[in-house]
Amino acid sequence: MRCFLFILLFLLTPASAQAQNTAGAFRLSGAQDIALAFYKTGGKTPPYESWIRKSARYTTTAPYLRPRVLAAEKEALQKAYRDFNPQSDVLTLGTRISASVHLMQADEQTPWPRYELHFDLPVSSPPSFPYTYLDNKYVLIPSDPDSLLRQTISKDRYDYLARVLQNESAPLTLIFQMRPVRAEMENPVRDIDGEIMWPLITELAAISLWNEKGAQLWENTMVTGIGPASDELMNLKQNRGQNIPY
Fold it and tell me: Which of 39, 154, 168, 241 lies at a 20 to 30 A Cα distance from 59?
């Protein structure tokens, strides 16, 4: 028997217009990407034909052409499923935020001062990211939600961001790339309206901060060699001549 958990989920507008415009080299993941990643991570085959028959492209096509649409769409979905590798690929999300730097004093747990970059996400904590694909809902849940709220930084980076953020009056954009680690195929949850959602547990692979003009202010690649995250960030920095202190 399936276990239905009840949790309170908050919407984080993962594909805001500013996020799309700020980091144009990033392709933000859509609902179909999330659905395919859920099935691939869980080791199950998606219901391709059921998905296609419910899609607008299929239902708005003349009946005599629908077999052709079904075949083409199924081939495209199967290819996307085959190509996605949960061990090396990432899901890219973005949202508008405000950010601030903080000098944290020594305490019992950390006996020395530390510098942190804090993100004010437009949600209550812990953050989660819901998506709807056709008639199913999925939710990305970070395994370490605190990593999306604050990051430890060096003194040099603290000094740099303290200067830069003083001049940034417009909302910033946070781009973060998540790697799927577990799909809860047998343990759905419910949103605040009681609707079923399928959780995809993720870990943070890379995260970067951008201003309204599309300049990168900061980045942190959590895992080396993750492919799309590290490559895109490096290309953007080289193309735009960013001088980000590390």
Answer: 39
Q: CB neighbours (10 Å) of residue 170?
A: 11
3-state secondary structure the chain: CCCCEECCCCCCCCECHHHHHHCCCCCCCCHHHHHHHHHHHHCCCCCHHHHHHHCHHHHCCCHHHHHHHHHHHHHHHHHHHHHCCCCCCCEEEEEEEEEEEEEECCCCCCCCCEEEEEEECCCCCCCCEEEEECCEEEEEEECCHHHHCEEEECHHHHHHHHHHHHCCCCCEEEEEEEEEEEECCCCCEECCCCCEEEEEEEEEEEEEEECCCCCEEEEEECCCCCCHHHHHHHHHHHHHCCCCCC
Distances (CA, A) of 13 to 119, 128, 130, 213: 15, 10, 9, 20
The reply to whether omega before 126 is within 30° of 0 (cis) is yes
Q: Are 172 and 120 in contact (CB under 8 A)?
A: no
* Residue bearing the bigger pLDDT, 199 or 244: 199
CA distance 84 to 90: 9
* Residue of 92, 114, 112, 94 whose CA lies nearest to 103: 114
For 102-122, what is each residue's pLDDT tens digit?
Answer: 998 877 777 778 899 999 887
Contact 2, 187 (CB under 8 A): yes
Burial (0-12, 13-18, 19+ Cβ within 10 Å), 75: exposed
The Cα 115–Cα 100 span in angstroms is 11
Paired tokens of 43: 């080791």
Q: Which two tokens stand for residue 36?
A: 């395919």
